[in-house]
Amino acid sequence: MKESKQSIDVYIIYRDLQAYGKEYEEYYLKAQRLGVKFINYVPDKPPKVKRDSKGGLKVTVYFPLIDKSISINCDLVVLSTPLIQHESGKEISRILKVPLGPDEFFLEAHPKLRPVDFTVDGIYVCGTAQGPKSISESIAQAYAAASRASIPMTAKRIRAEAITAVVNEDLCKGCGKCEEVCEFNAIKVEPKVFEVAPFIKSKVLVANVNDILCKGCGVCSVACPTGAIKMRHFTNEQILAEVSASIGGP
Ligand code: SF4
Ligand code: SF4
Hints:
By secondary structure, the protein is α+β, with helices and mostly antiparallel strands. The protein has six helices and nine strands; from the N terminus they run βαββββααβαββαβα. Helix content is 26%, strand content 21%. The strands form four sheets. It has a three-stranded antiparallel sheet, with no helix packed on it. A two-stranded parallel ribbon has the order 1-2. A two-stranded antiparallel ribbon has the order 6-9. The protein is elongated. The termini are far apart. It binds iron/sulfur cluster (2 copies).
C-alpha cells in the first residue's frame, strides 16, 4: 500500500514481532523505511476497535513507548490470525507415533541435522505441518522430504540398529508395560503357544520385539518389572563389569 501511495497511513499493531531469516528482516526494514508505523501493545491493555459517530472505524491502543493511549481513524482494519495445528494433528501423532512440539505442530528429529525426518523411520515432515512457513519454504522442504523418502525406496533395503531389545520369554509375564512405553511401536505383547509338558500346550502372552523398528533406546528395559528385557551388547552384566573395571574392581 505504501509503495502504491506514500500518503496512505499504515499501522501495524502487534504483541510481539520476530522476523526470522534475512529475507524477512529486510522486508521488515523496508516497511519501516517506507513509513509503516509499528505499535507494540501490552497484553493487559489490548487494542479496541469501535465505530465512530460517522460510521468509520476507530482503533484505540495504549502505546507504552509514550505512556499514552492513541486513537487511529481507519478505513480498513485487518485482523491477523495465527496458524494453529489442525484438530486431527493429535490423532495423527498418536496413530503414527510421531511427536508434536510444545506448539502442537509436528516435531522433526533434529532441527539442523534431520530437519525433515521424524524419530520414527519412514515418515517425513514438511510444510505447515511443522509450523507456520511461506510457500517457497514449504516447497523446498517438500522436495527435501520426497528426496529423503526416495532413499530407502531406491536402495530397496535399510540398515537396522545393532543394539536392540531382546526378551527372555521365560521371565516375561505379558503385562504390556514395555508396549506402553515404546515410542517407536517396536514391541507388541502377543499370545504364544508353549509346550509345557509332552502333548500339553499352553497359550500365554509374551512381548515380541520388531528388530527393524526397535531403536535400542532401552526404555522398555527400564520399564519391565520382571527384568525380562535386555539390550543387546548392553546387558546389566556387561555394564556392571565396565563400572567395576573402571573403578579398579575385580
Ligand atoms: S514389561 Fe516385561 S514382563 Fe511385561 S510384557 Fe514386557 S517384557 Fe513382558
Ligand atoms: S529399546 Fe526402545 S525402541 Fe526398542 S523396543 Fe524397547 S522401547 Fe522400543
